[in-house]
């Protein structure tokens, strides 16, 4: 008995000592009044609330959840605790749609259906039925729920990029896309098999083709924005987007993913860049987060000052995905995630993070410390 008690005491003081050492290495976080959003992505911390810990006690003031898991009751409960509630909305990744509408599958350079890279199924961006389906669902979510904003997710072309080595096939060369490209850009393509036309579009006509694809995706954003204006004009329109700069991976942001951030900025209020440092091959370098955020601010002219229309609220990785995020990184990740021009932050992702209670407590400690 005594031995066990002594061992427990030693281990306990060892833990305390380790904790003291860890803390000494990092400066104590100070209030960061420029940070208006301290969020959790992927659901509400229900089990903590059930332990009678309120959201303000956790330092959390925003919850981001999938639009499919919204209920009026859940929203009301979170709002009673002073939190804002934001919905995540799947734009071009409802793979189930293809079952009954195989003509919405993205077509590759060879004229055949492009298989989903690492299982990430995209949809042809000019399929009128699919677009209508998503717009109606977007409208329904905004009409039905008292949300403070809605965030686009997977608003890019058929690709797998949330990893160290992306796989981004060139698409979509379906007849519909080729026809619309010719109409919109007043170009006429020769009579030739798709395999030849795709080479032309990725060769001689690459600049025009790339811009046209970007414009198609931007036009979706324009329509999403107009639906917000009609249904819930105070709600913010956000987007979860690829964290690369305009030159990384040979300009893939535009020429593979079809994301034209500057054009989308006409309609988007909040840019939630996704610098998952561990997942994206920077497991030892949380400073990568603030470098990417700083680049985005410069690129879009966002400084993080009060009254600016555009905001940057990064979503940062605390849960283990691909690479583990150790507890000692919680503070540096949140530190880099809350540096200007960022004016808000949220952590990815509650479903897999919440059982890792040491990291959750470190997050709470940080959020409480930076509250103004
Ligand atoms: Zn297409």
Automatic annotation (TrEMBL):
Annotated keywords: Signal
Entry keyword Protein biosynthesis: no
Signal peptide feature range: 1-24
Domain of life: Bacteria
Record's protein name: Glycosyl hydrolase-like 10 domain-containing protein
